[in-house]
Write a structure and sequence with these properties.
Layout lengths: L2 E6 L11 H6 L1 H14 L3 H6 L8 H21 L6 E4 L4 H8 L4 H18 L4 E7 L3 H10 L4 E8 L2 E7 H13 L4 E4 L12 H11 L11 E2 L6 E2 L5 H8 L6 H10 L2 E7 L4 H9 L4 E5 L2 H11 L1
Parallel strand pairs: 1-2, 1-9, 2-7, 9-10
Antiparallel strand pairs: 3-5, 3-6, 4-5, 7-8
Helix pairs in contact: 2-4, 2-6, 4-5, 4-6, 6-9, 7-8, 9-10
């Protein structure tokens, strides 16, 4: 019998109104948004449900996304959805932590709020990220290494989609070389920093200090970490891995391949958008994937997975 995984999207999937129908339909979701607000002192509902320019600013995006993902997760669990394992892309890894129940939710929300602030402040200007389409990770990595300045792979999302990160001039220079090497397109991303690069090492150090104040429990279900693309089954390495993740490559393709190799044949994307479903279709056509970001999609998932 196949296994089921919960997977959680990262920054970039957010949109105005995300989670609002869950908030209006389920008391459990309302409680989760309240917990997020009490933990962080922010009006998270306003961030998510009303037009607010802060939604696309990292220090606010991350708490808004996580609150929405956890609200949907808890409604789904209440309705009988279960997973054998979990994973999340970048900030989505914190959704996986919620699924694994490794931290109390107020702690988790405070932690992601700090993560967003540290990442926002670490390198406020002069950084860039670009999506490279049509080349493999080995080629992209080699060209980044041959380019002057700081540029490296931020995300290995799926075959044919790699994201590079670093100093703006180095990212631009690498993009030109990648185009010459056969990239179909190099698409600059609208982001506020060079995320998942060594330029954010300081943010990882601050997060590590913050994590010292957090109690971490044994995962109820295993999850796969971004930094090393391995299953985490014990509490001991969690803090170190989360600190590493801020400046390390998000190894998403490897994460999905590992899950599939270990018998996962059903993936449920929990949160805004269908980004991860799109990646999975390029990784394997042999698995089932459904996305749940709205109440309507929740009802569809019940029918598809029953």
């Amino acid at each position: 019998m196949g296994k089921t995984a919960f997977i959680f999207p990262g920054q970039g999937a957010q949109y105005c109104g995300m989670g609002k129908d869950f908030y209006e339909s389920f008391e459990t979701a309302r409680k989760l948004y309240t917990i997020a607000e009490e933990a962080t002192g922010l009006d998270v509902k306003k961030l998510c449900f009303e037009k607010d320019d802060r939604l696309d600013i990292t220090e606010y995006t991350q708490i808004a996304m996580l609150a929405t993902e956890v609200a949907i997760l808890k409604v789904m669990e209440e309705q009988g959805f279960r997973a054998d394992c979990a994973a999340g892309l970048s900030l989505g890894e914190y959704g996986a932590l919620a699924a694994a129940e490794v931290m109390e939710l107020p702690q988790l929300f405070r932690l992601i709020r700090c993560r967003g602030i540290y990442m926002q402040e670490a390198y406020p200007t002069g950084g860039a990220m670009t999506a490279v389409l049509g080349l493999d990770a080995e080629t992209v990595g080699r060209i980044c290494e041959e380019t002057s300045g700081i540029v490296s792979i931020a995300n290995d999302n799926c075959p044919g989609q790699i994201v590079i990160t670093g100093e703006a001039e180095a990212v631009e220079a690498a993009s030109a070389k990648l185009a010459e090497a056969g990239a179909k397109r190099c698409v600059p991303l609208k982001v506020s920093g060079p995320f998942h690069s060594c330029l954010l090492a300081g943010a990882g150090e601050k997060l590590a200090a913050q994590l010292e104040e957090v109690a971490v429990k044994e995962p109820k279900i295993p999850y796969i970490c971004n930094a090393e693309a391995v299953y985490v089954r014990e509490s001991a390495p969690i803090k170190k891995l989360l600190a590493m993740q801020v400046s390390g490559t998000v190894r998403w393709r490897e994460t999905m391949e590992l899950m599939i190799a270990n018998g996962v044949d059903t993936f449920i994307e929990i949160g805004p958008g269908k980004t991860l479903a799109g990646f999975l279709k390029r990784i394997s056509r042999d698995v089932k994937v459904v996305s749940v970001g709205t109440v309507q999609e929740l009802e569809a998932a019940k029918s598809l997975l029953s």
